Automatic annotation (TrEMBL), chains A, B:
<feature type="domain" description="RNA 2-O ribose methyltransferase substrate binding">
    <location>
        <begin position="31"/>
        <end position="100"/>
    </location>
</feature>
<dbReference type="Pfam" id="PF22435">
    <property type="entry name" value="MRM3-like_sub_bind"/>
</dbReference>
<dbReference type="InterPro" id="IPR053888">
    <property type="entry name" value="MRM3-like_sub_bind"/>
</dbReference>
<protein>
    <submittedName>
        <fullName>TrmH family RNA methyltransferase</fullName>
    </submittedName>
</protein>
<dbReference type="Pfam" id="PF00588">
    <property type="entry name" value="SpoU_methylase"/>
</dbReference>
<keyword id="KW-0808">Transferase</keyword>
<dbReference type="InterPro" id="IPR029028">
    <property type="entry name" value="Alpha/beta_knot_MTases"/>
</dbReference>
<keyword id="KW-0489">Methyltransferase</keyword>
<dbReference type="InterPro" id="IPR029064">
    <property type="entry name" value="Ribosomal_eL30-like_sf"/>
</dbReference>
<dbReference type="InterPro" id="IPR051259">
    <property type="entry name" value="rRNA_Methyltransferase"/>
</dbReference>
<dbReference type="GO" id="GO:0008168">
    <property type="term" value="F:methyltransferase activity"/>
</dbReference>
<comment type="similarity">
    <text>Belongs to the class IV-like SAM-binding methyltransferase superfamily. RNA methyltransferase TrmH family.</text>
</comment>
<dbReference type="InterPro" id="IPR001537">
    <property type="entry name" value="SpoU_MeTrfase"/>
</dbReference>
<dbReference type="InterPro" id="IPR013123">
    <property type="entry name" value="SpoU_subst-bd"/>
</dbReference>
<dbReference type="InterPro" id="IPR029026">
    <property type="entry name" value="tRNA_m1G_MTases_N"/>
</dbReference>
<dbReference type="GO" id="GO:0032259">
    <property type="term" value="P:methylation"/>
</dbReference>
Length: 254, 254
């Protein structure tokens, strides 16, 4: 166990840089905060490089079997590294998992995320896709960064539970259709009520940007545009909530 | 139209205080930001007291028929009043709507919010309850403030669409049961799969705190505890997403 006391220590400065997307992409690493996420990372076999704990933080014995370097820091340094208001005493530098080559298969179930901009929404959507038992998530251009601290925390560990791949969604869409997987775009108008969607084993659902929804180019190529019925006076639902309602509705069609 | 230029103007100082719950409760007013919320407020007959716009903001003609006092301020003052990163050029001081006396009725559909702490979650939950066409929302103790700026913005206007009442949830629960409205608590364990809940016209659904869920005292008194099946490896769903899935599932039982 190594101890760092100075805020100007080079490692501290380096790890803090991981708050930026640029540095995460340059190094292929990202930060994990809190014992729950670190537990999930270890359980899934993710590679932790450094684990930084506050003085008096109690490490679990199983964690110490892992290969990372362990560092202890005072509370003031934990505050510098943390992106939350109440740091939980442990932060890790984790290697980004390798993107799987091909995750599409017959009768598979997928979510396409087309330009969701809020990291909290993206993380919650991934957590929801995990709950619904999907086989993978595709992130299209203009979508929030998967390794943004807020995204990672909002997944509550689901980032380690299912394949998540950056991909051109137009390509992913035609790949699905070659496998006879129907692709459903969410839409507010000119769409089929989700309850009327025919039975299907596999599917791909496309959810879109908070303001503008799924881009027309994808809607036009989709097998069907689907919508959630609105029974009250709201104009639309939050994109994470809509994803949950639609995925559990499609789950029923199997 | 009155013009304010100085940051030390007494009205500016007073309105900025509405960022705090204490001042909102003392004055019975709260802030609304952005044209969409102001449109919704006017459409629902809410009483706007002051409307503050940035120079060059284009007011809609219909809005000018309302009774508020209109103020113009420079961008630097709008920034002081705003609670968002990108102010949208218009903020209003709005009177809190009077709480309706009694909203429970036979076969009605209600949501109880038991200690949801994040204002963004609370606002999203209210927007979802509106979409699902509920007859009202009860906010229990320990729940985020309905008039917090983040809550209000997350409702996307639904705060003006359905009755929302602060109430002791134990009392609300027994009131429902006297009307033969079944009350369902969400629960992660020892609960009936939502798909197995019997047909029902009316219902009350209780959703709980992000960390600890619905308090045991309410679960024990409920007609039934219900859960969302998890098909993947996630431990639970975000509370707003869970609310959406459950409300749309219960909608099907009618």
């Amino acid at each position: 166990m190594k101890y760092i006391e100075s805020e100007s220590n080079a490692s501290i400065k380096q790890w803090k840089k991981l708050h930026t997307k640029k540095e995460r992409e340059k190094t292929g690493t990202f930060l994990l905060e809190g014992p729950h996420l670190i537990e999930e990372a270890i359980a899934s076999g993710a590679a932790l490089v450094h684990v930084i704990v506050e003085e008096n933080f109690e490490m679990k014995d199983e964690w110490l079997k892992e290969k990372f370097t362990l560092w202890t820091v005072p509370a003031k340094i934990m505050k510098i590294l943390s992106e939350t208001e109440k740091p939980q005493g442990i932060i890790a530098v984790c290697e980004m998992p390798a993107e799987p080559e091909e995750i599409l298969k017959e009768n598979g179930r997928y979510l396409f995320v087309d330009g969701v901009q809020d990291p909290g929404n993206l993380g919650t959507i991934i957590r929801t896709a995990d709950s619904a038992g999907l086989d993978g998530v595709f992130l299209g251009e203009g979508t929030a960064d998967l390794f943004n601290g807020k995204t990672v925390r909002s997944t509550q560990g689901s980032i380690f539970h299912l394949p998540i791949v950056k991909k051109d969604l137009q390509k992913a869409l035609s790949d699905c259709q070659s496998l006879n997987i129907p692709v459903y775009s969410t839409s507010l108008s000119d769409a089929v009520d989700m309850r009327e969607v025919p039975e299907t084993k596999g599917f791909a659902l496309i959810v879109g940007n908070e303001g503008s929804g799924v881009q027309p180019a994808l809607q036009n190529e989709s097998t069907m545009n689907v919508k959630i019925p609105i029974f009250g006076k709201a104009e639309s639902l939050n994109v994470s909530v809509a994803t949950g309602i639609l995925l559990y509705e499609l789950q029923r069609k199997r």
